[in-house]
Structures
1.
Amino acid sequence: MTDNTPHSERPAANESTKEWHRISPIAVMFYALRFIRGFVGNLAYLLPALLVGYNQIQKNPQAAIPLSIGLAVLILVNAILSYWFFQYRLTANHIEIRSGIFSKKYVNLPFNRIQNVEVSHPWYYRPFGFATLKLDSAGSVQQEANIAALQSQFAEQLRREILNQKATGASAAAIVEVDADDIDIAGQPQQGVPQETLLNSRALKDLVLHGIANNRVWIVLGALAPFIDNITEGLPEQLQAQGIDSIQIFYADSTPVWQLGLGVIVIFLVVMALMSLLSVVGAIITFFGYTLSKVDGKYIRRSGLFTRHEITMPRSRLQMITCQQDWLDRIFNRINIKFEQINSGGSNNGQQGQPSITEGTNKIIVPSVTPSERQDLLNDAYPDNQLSRIHFHRISKRYLIRFYGLLFLLATPLSALFVSNGNYGLLTLVLGFSGFASLLIYMRYLRWGVNFDGHFTYIRKGCFGVDYHVFEAYKLQQIRIKQSIWQKKHGLASVQFILASGAFTVPYIAEGFAKKLADSVLYQVEHKPRSWM
Amino acid sequence: MTTDYSNTQLHDAQLPTIDAIDFEYISPTHIKCTRILGAMWSLFFPLLLVILVSLPKGLLPEALSPVLTVIFSILSGVFFLYFIYLWFAEPIKAYALREQDLSYRSGLLFRKVITQPIARIQHVELKRGPLDRRFELAKLQVFSAGGAMHTFEIPGLELKKAQAIRQFILSHKGGSNDG
């Protein structure tokens, strides 16, 4: 395995920044797997072609061998070319990347524009000590850079370099030049590497709890997605072949209702148990060996069973801390903490960001911590926060009237109809549903609250679970006060806080309080220029 | 980060308040234009309806004509309501520029006041459609890191005013967004 670090390729040390470098050839593996993954991911679109191909192969099986060889060669050639055409260059405080086989791409990314550096160690790299480096910039997706294979140590140094650069600011270009040479001497530990402090780590037990309380099924299902069609397709036919007619089971007049009900409940429980099991597996895949540490103002999260991900986030980028507790979390007395930063997704309003296997780089999640750990983490990030003491201003009861009125309007005619029909089964369904919906809305009303202590804004919301959102007021991007005619009559208003990580609405609070909130938060933003990034 | 942070108690009366903002209405020309456009739209579908009814029988397939009648009637109604809403909602739209922020008020049934601190603005755009160009108007768009969903937008500004606001935003101190 040849070394990819620049110093092995050219003699003079101070020219290091002028030359283009290739990454390590092991990247071929990365590109091949990426190609296969892309291929499987687009299976749905390729299905017609595959079906035709399958029929052809069935007709003449001897074609299968050259065909698969052809495919393998295609993947290999693509991977090798991808590797060959990927070149990068480090200049004073930029990284430049050239890539692309047919359509060439050139990215010039100044270090001080880089939002996030993610180092990950895919399982197939781990024996060889390689890592991939992902650089996110504040801008669009096109502006992000993936460096597929670097020696772990070099990747680590580069990451430190980029983040230090950010800290010292662009003015220190001369110093950076020296540092850039330091990078070249891979293997030699840099002097004066600051000590990391471990803030939190998660044991397997925590992850199991997390998996049960938080649905992470989709991680496993997501990986299976291309095959689900095939699995379910054959099912009814197979059942029928075994003499089980699923439709008959459900609609047979002979089966008593209680038997049917019991059957449904059993099926439901089995499905739920399976789901939680999968969810636990998903949580372990994502969070295995979880550590959260801090080194000069940066949070570093490391986790992952197969691919180890390392996400770094400067403290100054932190926009909001969310403490999330679903109803099962409440039973276990555990809390999920999210350190949220700029949401580059755009369309998503950040309240329920769909996480991926890596949990995205725009937030750092600490799964299922205990209340005391929550307090430690919160106090570390936001000293002087008063989340545990603050009194929340609840929203007005009029919030309920709208929903209850609507529910009443819907449920009454339906119930009347079913009573007159004598259809008591459906009547119970309607009443049960209305009761549940009322409870849901009432819980939501109870939870919703907001307050401001002069520096931090606190929002509480939820239903059976509770979410607390805490943010520093000066991080606000925009504020909106909304008021319907009806609200105006009763002196109520809704206020919406827009942050770089998402928007949060608190409805039906007193108009005066809403305006006071807006005024005080705006004052925090405006009275002194302070960077929110 | 928080070392230079001061937290002196401010009494409500001392805070500059949104309530005291003196809003300025958008250009009357813009209001007129939108109303005329709205009227044209609300006349468009009734016109189609008339054409449909007066068409000789057998020109359109038998089944199509009642479907079209229903669709056009619904659209006529929708656009008529929209026109009425426009008529009353347009003159409410107003904006205000303070030293540190930009506010925009709108909405007839749901009154909305958006305030955008200038220090949080990422970039500014002036948009001018054909009508805007004809009448020397412009729409001011202001982007923050709050995302595309929360673009701050003031329509129907006189071009000179819009340019002045843009200039004010661009030359505003305290827009230090680079960490």
2.
Amino acid sequence: MSPSLLQVENVTKRFGGLAAVSGLNINIQEGELVGLIGPNGAGKTTAFNLLTGVYDPSEGNIVFDGNSINPLKPYQVTKLGMARTFQNIRLFKELTSLENVKIACNLRSKSGLFAAIFRTPSMIENDREIEQKSLDLLAALNLSHVASNRAGDLAYGLQRRLEIARALATQPKLLLLDEPAAGMNPQEKQELRELIQDIRTRFNVTIMLIEHDMKVVMGLCERIYVLDYGQIIAEGSPEDIRSNPKVIAAYLGQEEAE
Amino acid sequence: MQALVQQLIYGIQLGSLYALIALGYTMVYGVLKLINFAHGDVYMVGAYVGFYACTSWLPFKELATNPNAGGTNILLAIVALLLSMAICAVLGMTIERFAYRPLRNGLNEVDAIFWGFAIALPISSKFGPLFSVKGGLAFIVIGVILGFLMRPVMAYMRKRIKLSSSRLNALITAIGVSLALENSGLLVFGSDQKFIGNLIPESNWNFGGIQINSGQFIIFCVSIILMAALRFIVLYTRRGKAMRAISHDIEAAKLMGIDTDKVISFTFALGASLAGAGGMMVAAMTHVKVTPLFGLQPGLKAFVAAVLGGAGNIPGAVLGGIIMGVSEAYVAGSPYSTYKDAIAFCLLIIVLLVRPAGILGKNVAEKV
Amino acid sequence: MLRGTFVRFLGFAFSLALLLLVSKGAAYIKDYYVSVIVTCGIYVILAVSLNLINGITGQFSIGHAGFYAVGAYVGASWSLLALPRIADTPLLKIGTPVGDTINVIIAIILGAGAAALAGFVVGIPSLRLRGDYLAIVTLGFGEVIRVIFLNMDAVGAARGLTGIPSIVSNHDMSIFWVYGVAILVIMLSKNLIGSVRGLSFLAVREDEIAADAMGVNTTRVKVTAFVLGSAFAGAAGSLYAHFATGISPDVFDMNTSIIITTMVVLGGTGSITGSVLAAIMLTALPEWLRFLQDYRMVIFSTTLIVMMLTRPQGIFGHREISFASFKRRKRAVIGGGEAP
């Protein structure tokens, strides 16, 4: 068995007296495609924020790729190889698509501030490489035609795709997608599913996604975690989850399940 | 010990004045998230209204020739105070209507014409006084031209670039209003210092070695009364409730059928009238000389007081004002008195580093 | 690659030479105009440097006069207090062309360095504070710095420092020095925002949380912006001290801070071109309006309000005007004409 890429051990996060997430245990192996589902307010986004270092856990430990990420800031977590998208799209709206991707690409470059303000030859070389890489990435996600458009002006579906491109630009080992299909029509959802499959093989990344659309989750993920009231209530393959009475109860309410 | 208590009393008296001005800042910040830089200048206008009311508009009795005129003068002083408050309230509403509302809702015809004439006024005085034929004609012609040109020019610009108004922008507008008031003040009132003599018989009371000046004491009492009145308005009237609703969420307030423009205008009127009262009292009771830049320092300090207490928070403004006044009094009484003007900011920096939203302010984390 | 750097260097050297020529030509214009032109140049540096903090990194700083003051005082102290003691050093001899030149350069660098240090100190609270709160704290820092100078006997307290020896104060060298530094500052700033590294500054302005998630060290970016912006302002301060040969605390009061902020907003936050133009406009316009006498400032302030109401994004918005932007536009037309 290969070592797990992400290991979340008994993580709890409290806001005031309220535990948004409690006793969370998640284990992700390299190469997996994992889903995280749950009713509204179950704590899914909080879980993502804990993983990416936006929040520090009140209790418990998160180990990513052999490093504890508890004390790390989001940018350090990203540097370790975990990238995310946001539920409510957070692109750099005034900048172009290309610039959005370039910013994320810059993470892996060594060019310093001094080099930037004096325009040293090595920095120009470095910038050119990043530009090429970014353009390639945009091409890979079918976004070349909007490379020089303002990110805020793009159509909704394209904005979601650009966010994924931007996350991929940080060259992650683990990609976290927060409701990638939200607000999409069935046609777009189908495209998204193909895109995610495609990304997974092409970029060789492990993917974890939060999603409401059961069709997308069940069709894509190999393993699913179900979160309710901040706790994992079930874990398993899509078939297991579909027939799990606890999950049905969480989604449909107690009476129907009885 | 005695000196410490004495400084504390000075500080509280000074602080009550800062609190009075700070309330205007904090209320406006609460509803609009705008630093109303012009508030200190409204205070200045209040002082001038007080000056003119006391020296030429109202028949005050000379205390030197009528030693018993104190009673009449007290009545007149109340009239002068109300007058200052009323004029400043109108000024505050005018500022809101023509400078800040266009920031929110865009510049409409009326605004454009107003600003056209506002620019035309000083230009036309190049041609002659406003009430002469030449000057008046120039005023109307230039005003009409500028006012009617502004709309199409703006419509054209809006077509070119999306209109987006930022906080920085609002701040610069407020600074512009402040500069405009100060410089108009220089023109209208002149740059010389104005001074009001004793209106009300003044005395120093002595409580076991602790001096209390009657003028200072009156300012303190009137400030407390006005603050209590404000508290009543904000907590128990419909308008006050609407104000609080807007400061929570202006969009939701709009959806609930609150006429936000009207309530914002009302907020400005309230804040400005408090500043006007403060200005009038300082001019008439404390022997401070009035100049067009009179409002700059107190305005700034009151603003710092508002932020210190937590911008948008009404009890916070009062608390901040008192803290500012007391610390300033203590520094002024110490060997470091030349640092008096810096203490406000030092205090502010320290407090904000510990509590980024002020003492009573709530720190709202951004949702991810 | 190397060729590009070389061309750039050549361009800079050429513009310096041209500047020297123009500067020498200034001998034939009235002192008054030279002083207006030099003041414009100093405000160009100040506006561009504040734009790095406000416009490009999106931090709300309105106390720039403080850094300007630090630069001026430290630069002046070097020339006035430190230099006479080591004036025997052959390279630094006052009065010789070489000595004067080196002295001015050292003064500028010292001013910039000291202001950068002050910028670092002010940059720290920017990590915790946001928006209006940051604005008032920076304004406060500016005032505190001024009051400290006002109370410092070593630098003349309220009287300030006078009699600063310098070649910048020479009629025909002032334009050269001030505009030389201005061009350098503009170039460096443009280099920064033209680089991928500089994009991370814009990212912090656009969305701090997203920038953080994309691996941008937002803390470092913000402090860097403050340090860089205040270093440039410090250079401007040192230049001002050596041009005016006398400084006092009231030159660096809140009004100066506010004027610089106004230049940035009026020009368009984020646009360096806009800052340059607005700085020139706001310095020259009040001079030009002098014929209006007392009404000058009233017209100035009402115009400012009207500008803000009719064009909130400033003259240039976020855009720049440069040769590169024309090229880019052309490329965009050729390359990406099929937007959805």
3.
Amino acid sequence: MGNVKSVYNALKFLGATPTIVDTPSKVDGDKIIIPGVGAFGEGMNKLRRFIPKLERSLDSGIPLLGICLGLEVFFEVSEESPNVDGWRLMGGRVEKIRTALRLPHIGWNSIEIKKKTCPLFKDVKEGYVYFIHSYHAVPDEDVIVATTQHGCEITAGVWKSNIYGTQFHPEKSGILGLKILKNFLEV
Amino acid sequence: MLCRRIIPCLDCDLAFPDGRVVKGIEFKQIKYAGIPWQLAAKYYEDGADEIVFLDITASKDKRETMFHVIEKTSENVFVPLTVGGGIRSVQDARKVFNAGADKVSINTAAIKNPIIVNKLARYFGSQACVVAIDAKRRYVKDAEGKTVIKTIQGTCWFECSIYGGRTFTGIDAIRWAIEVEKRGAGEILLTSMDRDGGKDGYDIPLTEAVSERVRIPVIASGGCGVLAHIHEVFQRTKVSAALAASIFHYETHSIKEVKEFLAERNQRIR
């Protein structure tokens, strides 16, 4: 799903030993990341055969991080592909950003950390991270840990037990993004 | 609120093993500036918001060198990386993404076969599909069917050029910008051929005309010679980003200096 190479490079830079997997049987590791660019429908359809394996990993307590589209698939449904079921790990929908400003929302925007207890943002001061998307999650449960503003409030981060998600791209957000990825590795 | 982006552009000549960054003047004369991945790493550390590589060789037998350059760069550069030049198909784009690029920029292929814009947007998402427009002023009183803009130098329309400025198409750049947005492009990289390499500032009427007519982000390019030019294009137009090459390559200014200059003038930058 999208450009996994960037995430791979960032993890290697941080000293981790990432493996890119293309079949469910190879999903193995003490952390799992679902990177993502592209459309919800296509992404979800590619992800679907991994879900039983991923859910067993989640049940055994392995932390999961979804990035951008990788976060969006956690929800029930997306306006981008209304006929495709989401993963339903979290309650709520993915909606097109309702703003009078330019779309896609591309570039560096400041995040406001709403839940400082979220391990992703340990020792992270508020700052700029890189976004590139037109849709965002509108959860109907209390999972939002960070937001940003683009003519309206946008969900920038979610967290529910061992499931983490960032709408922005930590692997493309310079030093601040690397710190957030490092925090995930240390969860 | 989004910050406006500062994007160094590296024009790469791949007739050398690691490639060379070069800088043309009005798309012609060429000067050497350094090794692509080394310059990219320097700009990243200096605060570049994004990096653009343009393969000016764009010949099939040198593509492997470009993949090598992208791979090497993406190991140490953690800001978005856009690659353009010679991408003709979805398969070409996929190889560039697999090497570590985040976006592809297309010009010639899009004009010759516009459906490729729709395809790239569908397969990789709009956010990964940048359409580059190389526009040249055509001064005429009455250009039928063209979008005519008044400038200090006279009334003109803007013509799209392809093959690195070697071929003119008769296509209206402003209309083309509107069309590629409809086809699913995520951003427009708008270069003024009249200003490129001239260091006289961005083409404000061109940049204004395009950025007011599309909703997707527009990147201004061509003509940056001093810090004030970036401030000017941010003040006078609705562009989302400014691209520059020579002021960074020849160390006229560092990216840090650009950002300090803009911050002092109340521009929102990272």
